[in-house]
Design goal:
Blueprint lengths: L3 E9 L11 H15 L5 E3 L4 E4 L9 H11 L5 E4 L2 H4 L3 H14 L2 E4 L9 H34 L12 E4 L2 E4 L1 H17 L2 H11 L6 E2 L5 E2 L6 H9 L6 E4 L2 E4 L8 H15 L18 E2 L6 E7 L5 E7 H5 L10 E3 H17 L3 H5 L5 H15 L3 H6 L1 E7 L2 E6 L1 H8 L12 E11 L2 E6 L8 H18 L4 H8 L3 H7 L7 H9 L8 H6 L6 H9 L2
Helix pairs in contact: 6-7, 11-13, 17-18
């Protein structure tokens, strides 16, 4: 009898109760293990690996245990996924379709121990889709309730959690002043009034030994207590929390916590900051703007900064690099990101254009929009999607890059201005997109390969395809490789390598013209790899790039 290798997957949306000796994840695993034991006669065997996601929503597939489970399924190590309920696997119909497709490809399946249906029948598939629809509806309604509760609480001036800022300690739904830390905050405001620039404040703060807040993390270790950088100082100087107020989605409400800085002084500092920002900088503007400057952050919270180098021919190559690489360039062992600016901007431009072109965005952008309003929004979004690169990247509010994925969030205020909407009506979640990617190394340079962004139009490759057809026509007319090479002013070997491009399948040529070819399919690649003449073999080869 064939053994059916079974993996149990468990999930809980919140972290509440996970610290208990026997929690929800244990209960799910126990029920699934009992079900597998009951199927022993059918050859079911429980695998020892545990796939548990605690405190993670079912609205996304970006869950560590889920990703590991799907990887093991793809590798052929799992035959059957066992879950307590279908909504433990996912609460999204779109994600469920992706999971089923991967299971079918690997010859695997799944079973719910509390919900019995047969997906081989039309009624079984209907039942499954209904269950998932209700699960997705429940998740969306719960999310709306949480957002509404947070908004209502902040309008009342309540503290709704998160990182406790420097100068305060948490006190239920409000904050109380931590006097030792509050002295640091007051000193920073005084320094800014005296010096007028954040750079000088940072230097003075370093001399005085001012440090960030120390806080304990989940594993008991202490973090923080480090010198204040310019970004942290700017955040402290612009945070209305220190004036006894609460900020929520662009609106500021009176808070129920005490102020560390007098409101009049806080307003005075804001005016000073605004005036300083408007001063012209005595710096020669670059002929090529870095459109994402100040908007990209890595997994450590370090902001990317523009950089450039020059080739031997004098061409200027732009990059976005982790700020620590620029600030500590002479130190050994400093690691960070170094991404080609032109390529990254092109990739993120495609992501933004895809977000705005999504026909469902108009319905998700506002809470309970009317039919006429959706039609108006859709028209406005279509107009935005047709904008140029600079206009599209100006809509980007923040990009967070971490190994394996990036999160792009559009600036709600900028989008609201273009669509003539009140910014408080926009749903920030609808303006955020998580995009998986792969890294490819090329010398010291790291290339970012986004999963859902096209490779982009490669004009060099297009010219070489056209040249290959021209050379092939000359070969058919009776000219030799040597004659063609002399006339073109290139080595004979180059002609022999490039003429293969004349035999590309029509759909591959169409993708090249549209900029949708695989990212690795370039002219340089063609010089190193002979192309098969069979079109199906060409597609298989290019699909592996």
């Amino acid at each position: 009898m064939k053994k059916i290798r079974c993996a149990i997957y468990t999930r809980k949306s919140s972290e509440e109760g996970l610290e208990q000796e026997f929690n929800s994840l244990h209960a799910q695993r126990e029920a699934c293990a009992a079900y597998i034991a009951s199927q022993k006669a059918e050859g079911w065997v429980l695998l020892p690996a545990q796939y548990d996601d605690g405190g993670i929503s079912g609205g996304t597939l970006e869950r560590p245990a889920m990703q590991q489970l799907l990887a093991d399924v793809d590798a052929g190590r799992v035959d059957q996924i066992v879950v307590y309920k279908i909504d433990r696997l996912t609460r999204s119909l779109a994600d469920f379709a992706k999971i089923v497709e991967r299971l079918d490809t690997a010859g695997a399946s799944f079973v719910s121990v509390t919900q019995s249906f047969n997906t081989a029948t039309s009624m079984g598939r209907l039942t499954l889709n209904m269950l998932l629809s209700f699960a997705q509806f429940e998740r969306e309604v719960t999310a709306e309730r949480i957002r509404d509760k947070i908004a209502a609480s902040k309008r009342k001036g309540l503290w709704m959690g998160g990182y406790v800022p420097l100068g305060y300690d948490a006190d239920g739904r409000t904050l109380r002043i931590n006097e030792s830390e509050a002295k640091t905050v007051r000193t920073l405001y005084d320094l800014y009034r005296d010096h007028g620039t954040i750079r000088e404040v940072k230097e003075a703060a370093a001399v005085l030994g001012l440090r960030s807040k120390r806080r304990a993390v989940a594993d008991g270790r202490m973090r923080g207590g480090i010198p204040l950088d310019r970004g942290h100082i700017h955040h402290i100087l612009t945070n209305p929390l220190y004036a006894g107020r609460i900020r929520h989605k662009g609106q500021v409400h009176d808070g129920q916590h005490p102020a560390i800085i007098e409101p009049e002084l806080w307003e005075e500092v804001q005016a000073q900051l605004t005036a300083e920002a408007r001063k012209p900088r005595a710096r020669k503007a670059s002929s090529t703007r870095s459109l994402l400057c100040g908007k990209i952050y890595d997994e450590t919270g370090d902001r990317f900064t523009p950089s450039h180098s020059r080739t031997r021919a004098g061409a200027r190559l732009r990059y976005y690099i982790s700020h620590r690489l620029a600030a500590r360039g002479g130190e050994a062992g400093v690691a960070g990101w170094r991404l080609p600016a032109e390529e990254l901007e092109a990739r993120l431009e495609a992501v933004v254009r895809g977000m705005l072109s999504d026909v469902t965005l108009a319905g998700r952008l506002l809470t309970a929009p009317g039919t006429d309003e959706i039609a108006r929004l859709r028209s406005g979004l279509e107009g935005l999607a047709d904008a140029g690169r600079a206009d599209l990247l100006n809509l980007v509010g923040r990009v967070d890059i971490a190994p394996g994925h990036l999160i792009l969030a559009l600036d709600a205020r900028a989008v609201a201005v273009h669509l003539t909407l009140d910014v408080d009506r926009l749903d920030a979640d609808a303006l955020t997109k998580s995009v998986p990617f792969q890294l490819r190394k090329r010398g010291v340079e790291t290339k970012l390969v986004l999963a859902d962004a096209p490779a982009g139009r490669d004009d060099t490759l297009i010219r070489n395809v056209a040249r290959a057809h021209h050379w092939y026509g000359q070969l058919r007319a009776g000219r030799s490789f040597d004659e063609i090479a002399v006339a073109a002013g290139v080595p004979k070997r180059r002609v022999q390598q490039m003429v293969d491009l004349a035999f590309l399948a029509p759909d591959i040529i169409r993708d090249v013209l549209d900029g949708k070819q695989p990212l690795g399919f370039t002219s340089d690649w063609c010089l190193r790899h002979p192309l098969p003449s069979d079109w199906s073999e060409q597609r298989t080869l290019l699909a592996s790039l």
